[in-house]
Amino acid sequence: MTAPLDPVEQKLFAVDLRLDELEDRVKSLLDANANPTLPKPTWQHQTVDAWVEGWFVEAYVRSPVVGMRWCAQWREHSEAVIRLTAMWRSWESCQRDVDRGLSTWFASYGDPQFYELTSPSGTFRSCGVDSHRVLPPLPA
Ligand SMILES: [Zn+2]
Question: What is the pTM assigned to this prediction?
Answer without folding.
Answer: 0.69
